[in-house]
Design a protein that fits this description.
By secondary structure, the protein is mostly beta strands. β1 and β2 form a beta hairpin. It is built from four helices and 32 strands. α1 packs antiparallel against α2. It has a domain of 168 residues: Single-stranded right-handed beta-helix, Pectin lyase-like (Pectate Lyase C-like, 3 Solenoid). It has a 19-stranded parallel sheet that branches. Strands 7-10-13-16-19-21-23-25-27-29-31 form an eleven-stranded parallel sheet. Keywords: Cell wall, Cell wall biogenesis/degradation, Glycosidase, Hydrolase, Secreted, Signal.
Length: 436
């Protein structure tokens, strides 16, 4: 009887999904509609969200009611902050990953686990939840890193959930690495690598919730080549002068939502790079840091594609940039169908900026090609500028910015500088562009 009810529930939910999908299909507008201020990718995002919810419901309906718990303590992890617990974590992972059904891999609270670089790989038989309720502490010995670019990596694990509960912390102990950066020490070369603290690679249906990540060696959380991702209620922190410590880095990832999170770092709070599509960012507090950035794109004359990005609800305080799109000269491709809306900025440098002449290298040359920036909406954005320029569109003369909409923008304390940009004002806009 219970099985019949289960199947009936799944069928009814499927029917509701089909109705929602058909409604979304009828409402699609080809490209951007200035009267409705939306893109057709909005409907695609809704379809994918509905599909993901259905898949999660079906999996939950067919699961066993009581998950199996595998604790790292059962495999010899000491959690005293001094003993190397890497081997215990690897063995606990192998057990949890190879088990059937729902499995919780538990990192108990109240303990600090010292770890070398570690790569936890799938695919897994289990539907796995990693419960990081204690603290993970990175080794500060360079010899403990087989790969200088990564510390903790989850690779190829589908339907993975990482939950920090109320106490879970990932600490990169980055100070040792920051001292070797040319941005901290001008006598150092800029070729020195440093690890990303937490990397999720090549995974589908990923959830990261309630986690605290701090003082990464370089990037704090990197989401690479993933799809159907939800990140929520995370706190990401590092000093304002910590080099290259991007909070959440998204690259080559589709259908991702980041929400209800606080990020304060020494680099971009959130950075979105090539191959990313249907990115939704909601309810973000950012600062210190370099703001919310799309890019950099097109470095080393590469092709780059980013589309369907929506930042809806953010508060930025004291950041070096606000909402930014940055592309290198000489690149190609597109950054398109982007919405920044409902954003408050307090004492922010460069609150709104598109920079198609971005260069963080010792030398960049003038190039004819550029990543095309088009269909970008700035709506309901207000606050104060800490720089003389509040709105800057520095676009390419060969590939001008197209379809830029300013709708109810009010940023006090700076003027607008707009070059090679097709800008449309809707509602009250301050400051206003004078196109050159």
């Amino acid at each position: 009887m219970a099985r019949c009810c289960q199947l009936l529930t799944i069928f009814l939910l499927w029917a509701l999904l089909m109705l929602s999908w058909c409604e979304a299909s009828r409402n699609i507008v080809n490209g951007y509609d200035h009267s409705y201020l939306r893109f057709k990718s909005d409907s695609l995002i809704k379809r994918r969200d509905d599909t993901t919810r259905l898949k999660r419901f079906v999996r939950a309906s067919l699961r066993s009611p009581t998950p199996t718990t595998v604790s790292v303590s059962d495999f010899g992890a000491k959690g005293d902050g001094n003993t190397d617990d890497t081997e215990a974590f690897v063995n606990a992972w192998k057990k949890a990953c190879s088990s059937n059904g729902d499995v919780n891999l538990l990192v108990p609270k109240g303990n600090t686990y010292l770890l070398k670089s570690i790569r936890l790989t799938g695919p897994c038989k289990s539907i796995l939840t990693v419960q990081i309720f204690g603290a993970l502490s990175a080794s500060q010995k360079r010899s403990d890193y087989k790969d200088f670019s990564k510390w903790l990596t989850f690779d190829g694990v589908n339907s993975l959930t990482v939950d920090g509960g109320t106490t879970g912390t990932v600490d990169g102990n980055g100070e040792t690495w920051w001292q070797s950066s040319c941005k901290r020490n001008k006598a150092k070369t800029c070729t020195t690598k440093a690890p990303t603290a937490l990397t999720f690679y090549n995974s589908k249906n990923l959830r990261v919730n309630n986690l605290r990540v701090k003082n990464a060696q370089q990037i704090q959380i990197s989401i690479e080549k993933c799809s159907n991702v939800q990140v929520s209620n995370v706190v990401v922190t590092a000093p304002a002068d910590s080099p290259n410590t991007d909070g959440i880095h998204i690259t080559n990832t589709q259908n991702i939502q980041v929400s209800k999170s606080f990020i304060g770092t020494g680099d971009d709070c959130i950075s979105i790079e090539s191959g990313s599509q249907n990115v939704k960012i909601n309810d973000i507090t950012c600062g210190p840091g370099h703001g919310i950035s799309i890019g950099s794109l097109g470095d080393d004359n590469s092709k780059a594609f980013v589309s369907g990005v929506t930042v809806d609800g953010a508060k930025l305080s004291g950041t070096d940039n606000g909402v930014r799109i940055k592309t290198y000269p000489g690149g190609s491709g597109t950054a398109s169908n982007i919405i920044f809306q409902n954003i408050q900025m307090d004492n922010v440098k460069n609150p709104i900026i598109i920079d198609q002449h971005y260069c963080d290298k010792s030398k960049c040359t003038e190039e004819k090609s550029a990543v095309q920036v088009k269909n970008v909406v700035y709506r309901n954005i207000s606050g104060t500028s800490a720089s003389d320029i509040a709105i800057k569109f520095d676009c390419s003369s060969d590939y001008p910015c197209q379809g830029i909409v300013l709708d109810k923008v009010n940023i006090r304390g700076g003027k607008a500088s707009c070059s090679n940009a097709n800008v449309i004002d809707k509602g009250a806009v301050l400051p206003q562009c004078k196109i050159t």
